[in-house]
Amino acid sequence: MLQERRIKRQERKVREDFTKFLQELHKKGGELTSMSLWSSLYPVISSDPRFDAMLTQDGSTPLDLFKFYVEDLKEQYGQDRRVIKDILNDQKKVVQVDTTYEEFSKWVTSAEKGMLVDHGNMKLCYNSLVEKAESKEREAEREEARKKRRQESEFRHLLRAQQPVVDANTEWSAVRGKIEKEKAFLVIESEELRIKYFEEYKRFSQRGLHTSPSVSKKKK
Q: What SUPFAM superfamilies does UniProt report for this protein, alphabetically (predicted)?
């Protein structure tokens, strides 16, 4: 009975030592993270005597303990993400589309509590924040395109209301002075764009069309 208890204590110590080894790999520059694969780290793990000690006993295998450890790190993601967001808020940092991971990791690890964040979870959080920034940028681009289409449409309505009627022979200089104080004129960001819309309006009016080129193309 005493011999059995002694063996169990010894086996438990071997497992604890191996778990400490995994912790060392985790703290050692993020060599072991929530994203780590057994196949990638096997050469490092198998070269340590604590791995060999695990092979001399029954029960949990080194692979079992590795999986348990990595799973615990994955479950830590929510907590790590909150810590990261707190750090970024404190530093007034915002992840943009062009923010590099190296830059991001420096922000996080510059805070003491950021040193405890798992590097795999840090990478996952970074990817998530960059995707969010990309999504916001795409939405901003779509909104800008919608705004320009609205402005172009209002500008065409303004041209359509002119007397005499704007036709293929109408010069921009003949129209500009009559509409330059109108909102639909002022919101266009450049004179070059106003002239572009004006020329397109003349070209499409000549064909008996009153929609913008972009709309016409969509209908084809």
A: FF domain (SSF81698)
Question: What is the residue type of 57?
Answer: Q
What is the DSSP secondary structure assignment for residue 166, as one 8-state letter? Answer: P
Listed in sequence order, the residues at least 6 apart from 39 whose beta carbon sits closer than 8 Å to its beta carbon are none
Give the domain ranges of the chain.
2-75, 78-139, 143-219
pLDDT < 50 regions, the chain: 212, 215-220
AA letter at 163:
Q
Predicted local confidence at residue 17, as pLDDT: 98
**Residue 122 CB-density burial (10 A; 0-12 exposed, 13-18 middle, 19+ buried):** buried
Neighbours of 7 (CB within 10 A): 12
Find tokens 């991971």 and name the residue. Answer: 101
Phi, psi of 202 (to 5 degrees): -60, -45
**Fold exhibited by the domain 143-219:** Arc Repressor Mutant, subunit A (1.10.10)
- pLDDT given at position 110: 97
